[in-house]
Specification:
The chain contains eight helices and five strands; from the N terminus they run H-H-H-E-E-H-H-H-E-E-H-H-E. By secondary structure, it is of the alpha+beta class. The strands form two sheets. Strands 4-3-5 form a three-stranded antiparallel sheet. Helix 1 packs across helix 3 and helix 4 packs across helix 6. The longest helix is centred in the N-terminal third of the chain and has 14 residues. The protein is rod-shaped, with a radius of gyration of 31 Å. The C terminus is likely disordered.
Length: 213
């Protein structure tokens, strides 16, 4: 003789353990012959009504799912690692070792035109910041690294920057360095030929990239 309460328990166990929704036929194939699947599902659905987990029927298949009003609790934010391109790695290394440095100086060291997109990525990731302006004609924007840069590469200060070979191991440079790349002593946080942005000034460095896409 089939016990309705036991049938309900067995349906509950099957649905919890299932990797995908189950139909009434799927359940019937696993339960003793004559078990009232329909009544068991209705009773179980009523039992879970208003709870954190509900029993629902989707496309004639049954499953347990989080209550709709609690779906926001299941949201998970993940940070996806962004792999820097070779150009971005080299640009970051140049900024780290030559700061404060302008776009024109980055180009002179790398020997190729600097892409605005490359610097934008470094700014977006918080590895590089706009420091100020060079006290030269045109007052070009200067770039420097951030505390995030130090944290990312496990450095206490800029004085702990490694040599060229170690830079490759840390991922600061690709395996093929520009022929004219040099590794000077990191510059201080202040420079005699550098001035801060004026109060309320929003740095406009688009002119530094005129003619580039």
């Amino acid at each position: 003789m089939n016990d309705p309460g036991e049938t309900e328990r067995r349906i509950e166990a099957l649905l919890f353990a299932a990797s995908e929704p189950l139909s009434a036929a799927d359940l019937a194939g696993r339960l003793p012959e004559g078990a009232d699947i329909g009544a068991g599902l209705m009773a179980l659905q009523a039992s879970y009504q208003g709870r954190g987990v509900n029993l629902v029927c989707v496309a004639d298949r049954w499953r347990f799912q989080t209550a709709e009003d609690l779906a926001w609790l299941m949201t998970e934010e993940r940070e996806e690692a962004r792999r820097l391109s070779k150009a971005a790695q080299e640009t970051l290394a140049i900024i780290a070792y030559h700061q404060p440095v302008t776009r024109a100086e980055i180009e002179a060291i790398r020997g190729v035109q600097a892409s605005r997109g490359t610097i934008d990525v470094l700014l977006e990731l918080g590895l590089v910041r706009l420091r100020g302006r060079r006290r030269t004609p045109g007052r070009p924007v200067t770039f420097g690294t951030t505390d995030t840069f130090l944290e990312h590469y496990g450095l206490a200060t800029l004085g702990d920057l490694p040599g060229a070979a170690e830079m490759k191991a840390l991922g600061l440079l690709g395996m093929d360095m520009p022929a004219n790349f040099s590794v000077p002593t990191p510059g201080s946080d202040l420079a005699d030929d550098e001035e801060p942005f004026e109060d309320g000034e929003t740095p406009e460095f688009h002119q530094d990239f005129l003619g580039e896409e």
